[in-house]
Amino acid sequence: MDEWKGIKVALSRVKRSEAARIFTIINDCKETVWPAITPGEMFGGGGFLLKPGQSAVFTAPVGWSGRIWGRTGCNFDKAGNGTCQTGNCGTALKCVASGETPATLAEFTLASLDFYDVSLVDGFNLPLVVTPINGRGNCSIAGCDGDLRPNCPKELAVKSGNNVVGCRSACDVFQSDQYCCKGNYGNSMTCQPTYYSKKFKEACPAAYSYAYDDPSSIFTCSGTDYILTFCSSR
C-alpha cells in the first residue's frame, strides 16, 4: 500500500521524543470505520470517523495506557449521538468507556519499555494490525490481518440481516468457567486453548485468543511509534 509506505518514511524523519509516541491509524477497509480510544483525550476526544483509505495521526505521552478498537455500521448525528452495529461505547461518537463485545482490541502500556498486543478475548469485529516503527528491541508486528467473520462458528456469529458483522468469544456466549478462564480454570495451568480459541488463533496467530495466551501474543518495544491498520493488506 503506497500510503502506508509513505507514512513509514514520514515517521522515520520525525524527530524522536522519548516522552511521546506517534500513533498513525489507517482505515484500509472497504467500509467506513469509526476508531474508538479509551482514555481518548489525546486521540480526538476518544472517537472519530475514517472513510476507506483515510488515516489520522495522534501523539500520546509515555505513561499512557489504553485500548483502541474500530466500530462498524455506525450512524451518528451532527451532535455526535448515535449507535453502531459493533464496538458501541454507549451512544456517543467520542468514547469514555470500553466498547461492547465483540470487538478486536489493540492494547498499549507506554513506558521505558512499551507493552502492546491485539486481543480477541472479547471477540472479533475487524482485522487490526499494530506495526511498531523506529523502535528498539523485539518490536514484532501484533494483530490479525485475517477476517474471522466469514468463517465464524454460527453459535458465535453476530448478524445484521444476512451479514456476519462480528464473532463473539466463547466466554461471552457460554459464560462457562472453562471458556472464561475463571474458577478452577483461573490460572495458566488449567486454562488451556479450546476449540473456539484455536479457531481464532488459526486465523490470527499474533493476537490473543484466550486469557492466558501470553507467550505468542504480547510484545515489547522501546522508543517506538505505532501504525494501526484496520483491514491491513500487508
Would you give an account of this structure?
This protein has a domain at 21-146 and 203-230: Thaumatin, CATH 2.60.110. Helix content is 13%, strand content 30%. The chain contains 4 helices and 14 strands. It has helices at residues 2-13, 170-174, 177-180, 195-203; strands at residues 20-27, 34-38, 55-61, 65-71, 75-76, 82-83, 105-109, 114-119, 128-133, 142-144, 157-160, 163-167, 218-221, 225-230. The protein has a 5-stranded mixed β-sheet with strand order 3-1-14-9-10. Strand 11 (157-160) and strand 12 form a beta hairpin. This is Thaumatin-like protein. It comes from Papaver somniferum (Opium poppy). Belongs to the thaumatin family.
**Tally of separate helices:** 4
Proportion of residues in helical segments = 10-25%
Would you identify the CATH H-level superfamily of the domain at 21-146 and 203-230? Thaumatin
Distance between the termini: 8 Å
Total beta strand runs = 14
Mean pLDDT: 91
Annotated CATH architecture of the domain at 21-146 and 203-230:
Sandwich
CATH-defined fold name of the domain at 21-146 and 203-230: Thaumatin
Q: Gyration radius, to the nearest Å?
A: 17 Å
> What is the overall silhouette?
globular
> What is the string of SSEs from the N terminus onward?
HEEEEEEEEEEEEHHHEE
β-sheet strand percentage: 25-35%
CATH class of the domain at 21-146 and 203-230: Mainly Beta
The major pleated sheet works out as: 5 strands, mixed
